[in-house]
């Protein structure tokens, strides 16, 4: 029998709750993101990183404001056309293809994700969504 989970809509539907812009776990940015967003806000990449990014281990994340939200959140995403790859991809992150068990943990922070989606279906659906996004919105990160 064919799985009831075959498309991205079967495992995720965004409710627009806004929680993902409230800073859970941080929003990672890679080199391509930094270049795109710096151009969008009219500054060079060095200034952008100093003003709008923090370090999380070896990686860069967008700074959070005093309210705990992403620095670019103001009712909506103020950099929507160039928002980071991670925001555009969510929740179809490359890491899920290798580690589908992470889906369930992620779903605790995102009410739109179906926490009980089976791992074999997750791997197939997420791989397909990652390939689609990579074809149009390049990332320089392997995560
Ligand atoms: S937390 Fe999930 S459901 Fe809520 S806005 Fe973000 S992606 Fe959509
Ligand atoms: S960049 Fe935009 S979509 Fe991503 S966390 Fe910030 S406000 Fe939300």
Tally of DSSP β-strands: 5
What would you call the structural class?
alpha+beta
Number of domains: 1
**Percentage beta strand:** 5-15%
Bound molecules: iron/sulfur cluster
**Spans of 5+ residues with little confidence (pLDDT < 50)?**
none
Shape: globular
> What oligomeric state do these chains adopt?
single chain
- Biggest sheet: strand arrangement: 1-3-2
Element string (H = helix, E = strand) = HEHHEEEEHHHH
Largest sheet: 3 strands, antiparallel
Could you tell me the radius of gyration in angstroms? 16 Å
Approximately how much helix is present in the residues?
Answer: 25-40%
Q: Average pLDDT value? A: 92
Describe the structure.
A hairpin with a 2-residue loop joins β2 and β3. The strands form two sheets. Strands 1-3-2 form a three-stranded antiparallel sheet. It has a two-stranded antiparallel sheet with strand order 4-5. α2 packs across α3. The protein starts with 7 loop residues before the first helix and ends in a 7-residue tail after the last helix. The protein has one domain. It is globular and about 50 Å long. It is built from seven helices and five strands. Helices cover 39% and strands 10% of the residues. By secondary structure, the chain is an alpha+beta fold. Bound molecules: iron/sulfur cluster (2 copies). The site of one iron/sulfur cluster (SF4) has 11 residues, from loops.
């Amino acid at each position: 029998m064919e799985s009831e989970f075959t498309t991205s809509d079967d495992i995720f539907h965004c409710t627009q709750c806004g929680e993902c812009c409230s800073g859970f776990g941080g929003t990672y940015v890679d080199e391509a993101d930094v270049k795109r967003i710096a151009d969008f806000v009219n500054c060079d990449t060095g200034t952008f990183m100093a003003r709008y990014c923090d370090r999380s281990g070896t990686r860069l994340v967008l700074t959070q404001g005093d309210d705990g939200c992403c620095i670019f959140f103001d009712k909506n995403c103020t950099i929507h056309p160039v928002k980071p790859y991670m925001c555009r991809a969510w929740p179809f992150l490359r890491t899920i293809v290798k580690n589908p068990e992470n889906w369930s943990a992620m779903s605790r922070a995102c009410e739109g994700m179906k926490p009980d989606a089976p791992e074999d279906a997750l791997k197939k659906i997420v791989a397909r969504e990652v390939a689609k996004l990579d074809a149009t919105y390049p990332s320089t990160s392997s995560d």
